[in-house]
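Model it.
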Amino acid sequence: MRWPDLLALREPALRHPVLILESDDWGADAPARVNAQAEALVQLAGLLGSLRDGAGRKAVMTIGLVSGILDRQRLGEGGAGGRLTLDHPSQAPVLAALRLGVAEGVFAIQWHGLEHYWPQALLTRRSDPEIAAWLAGEAPTESLPVSLQSRWVDAAALPTRPLPAAAIRRAVQEEAALLEKLFGLVPAVAVPNTFVWNDEVERAWFEAGVRFVVTPGARYIGRDDAGRLVADRQGIRAGEAAPTGVHYLVRDVYFEPARGHEPERLLAGLAARARAGRACLVETHRFNYLGEGAAAARQALRCALEAALERHPDLRFASSAELGEALLRRDPAWVRTPSLAQGWARLVA
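Modeled.
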């Protein structure tokens, strides 16, 4: 038996199927896009609030929050580029929609980065035609080259380089202060942009109050000269402790209706994880719920959630922070000893 298989057998097993919707990239945006994003959040909050699991819990979407973006106007006026954060008046509709969703119990804020890039790396490449066009327009950060969308690495050139530990610490402290100002607390869960981060980031997060880090089952520390992700950890399991103090969660089901994903994709992922006694953390990004395809994407999400409730009457909706706390406490309302069938399902997954 391989060592990762032993870790799989030690992973806590859940008493009920658990479904967690995780959606990244919401937050600060170009002013021209703010109203559309706020309306998308309101629509999603209404959808989630209309559904209940067998225990009466509302559907929850975690919000991987990006709380700042480059102030393109200042850049265009010849400055070095300032920052628009979610507390800026131009961002008020988005912040109001997020706070409303949190108050209604359908949004759970997660730490995704002050920006969805490392600002100095982005500005170092401002003379590149692709980057210059992005800086001159209103396009979202999702349209940047994927290597530049990593916050916790210097991606000004490939292969990427680690950031100085002192710079990481300062940035995390700045982000924590802003998040506490916006929502009254530092989120317990962090989601690294593009899943690129390292020990220095984990330590700084933990010191700021983060308890759980969402992973795809691996940790990537940068990109090679071809832009491929470079991992220093594989086979991460839900609830696994890191030497830095945080614990890991695993998100490995992808539901992006804008890319042609049908509800059955989410449902198959949920069924497989329920058999193994694992939570189903579903990745579904902001871009699905904006623009021309937004209504179709919301309908696909509704169909998936309604079918999940029908197929799994004991399904539980939850946030990632709730799951993490239940795993740490081995809460008997959530966790039980894995059955033989669940152990086998984990080994062959």
